[in-house]
Amino acid sequence: MVVQLCTAGFFPYRNSYGGVSLVREGTEMSVWLEQKQQLIAALREAIDAARASGKLQVESVPEIGLEVPRDKQHGDFASNIALVMARSARKAPREVAEIIVEHLPQGGVIRAVEVAGPGFINFFLSNDWLYATLRAIEEQGEAYGNSSYGTGEKVLLEFVSANPVGPMNVVNARAAAVGDTLARLLRAVGHTVHTEFYVNDAGNQADVFARSLEARYQQLRDPSYPFPEDGYPGEYVIDLAKVLQEERPDLLDLPYEERIAFCKRWGTDQMVEMQRADLAAYGVEFDLWFRERDLHEAGALEAVIQFLKEKGLLFEEEGALWFRSTQFGDDKDRVIVKSDGSYTYVTADIAYHHNKLQRGFTKLINIWGPDHHGYIGRMKAAIQALGYGADTLEVLILQYVALLRDGQPVKMSKRAGEFITMQDLVDEVGKDAARFFFLHRSPESHLDFDLDLAVEQSSENPVFYVQYAHARISSVLRQAAEQGITVPTCREVDLSLLQHEAELDLLKQLAALPEELLQAALLREPHRITNYALELAGLFHSFYTHCHILGEEPSLRDARLVLVANIRTVLRKVLGLLGVDAPEQM
RNA sequence: GCGCCUGUAGCUCAGGGGAUAGAGCAUCGGACUUCUAAUCCGAGUGUCGCAGGUUCGAUUCCUGCCAGGCGCGCCA
Length: 586
Prior knowledge:
The protein is of the alpha/beta class. The protein is built from 20 helices and 16 strands. A hairpin with a 2-residue loop joins strand 9 and strand 10 (about 320-325). It is globular and about 90 Å long. The two termini are about 45 Å apart. The structure holds one RNA strand.
């Protein structure tokens, strides 16, 4: 596996089919990957034979790539190896291709080979491997497509981590969808994944929130009581104050400082519970809600400062204590202890990441909003200062979300307390549409979220398109059951009856899932799965129009029943990864 | 000024060192006595932001520029 540096994180993936297996030894292989490996092996054999016979004179053989051509006229798989080797072989690409093809082992699954275009070698296979895919799905069920590629990697995935001082926004909703699905994907390819929400309940914002809550509480008795200038204006603080009054009518008996301390702890706890409930309704649950205040109470900040001090990475200037993060490539050094003796946000965050590392995670993935990208440098510096490689921390930066209504951006003003919260969004469009839309685009793209489209129950709405495919299959299977027809197993039917172009297209799409999953997980690109689901649904709808199932004579009917039952399994699986429901009827 | 993201069809966006660059929407035209027409089939649309470079080959990689978004605190 080759590791490449990207600015926003590390993407440890390359198309390394030649020589490097994508699945570890002794683990299950998908039909698809197995097929590719076989063809690559055949190509290597042919090239070696050609070299041995002197027809191909090259010093070394480059990595052999194999891809599915965009145009299926170009075969099931195609390799550009002849184009790559042409230079060192001092021959025209097509000539190299011809020589390789001459030496290819005969027979087997390869039905035909052709040299095409500038020198591609196109493989046309017999359909057996596609039918083998159906058997694999039948055996593995919704585990189909999973692999053990990531065995040994212990990932801590931190996402959302919204401040516990107000409702979550739409970027939080995007982060929740991306993070949750990424966690599911990483698990599917064999990583051990632990998810965390970091609760920033000890900083300035929590103090401001506590004073806002206290003021609202006071105002319940005395409307003229002054509200802090920098306070949080939202209605929710007033609602919270009312609850507080019910629970603690005696709060004013406490001295001011204790009252604020109580409001801070109680208030942030309330907000955390709200966030937890909102996220649960959205299908997102965390393994741990990590409290910043626990770090403070455990003395973790002092401990990590001591650690850095002993390494000689801290210095004093202008009354403050600084972390020499520039030593590890950061733009500037960072204040760790302010001149007033309090800590900065980064101090607690370093302590938190220290804590993560001490718990034995080998990979820390954080998903942040676009306003935090400037923070990557200092955190990577901190990770290195703590004695780990910069690659241990990987940061995914999500981009901004613009909500559109009637084609126009929805204006929001946080200052005026007017903005669409995550909960507003979910209430309006539903969990499924919200998640699907967020997972439809690549994480780093700026996203236009069309509210009108998301609620539309029509073909225009992609989430319904996929769900409808699942419902349609469910309906067929229901009717089959009503007619007393049970879905047979692969062994009981003649799969070779599946010859229609629409059927073969579907089988290829099913076969491609393991690799899609691996790519989506390793590239941290959940949207690949959304697109996969849309393609699979599209192929099914087309098949459904062109091919009948229950009306056909029994042998074909049974083969098609097996096909659609397995399509349904895969649709369930991918919708499950996306956190979207797979309805039996619509 | 520096950094990050984005720039592909009228719109929203996929894709990606190679074979005629894709989808959905929108537009136009077809398909329901037949397992859900929330569906399908067909038609048109492109200087892949601009300019260089690397390469047999660049829309893809590199550099510079232009445009839009977002950052650059002893805030979090």
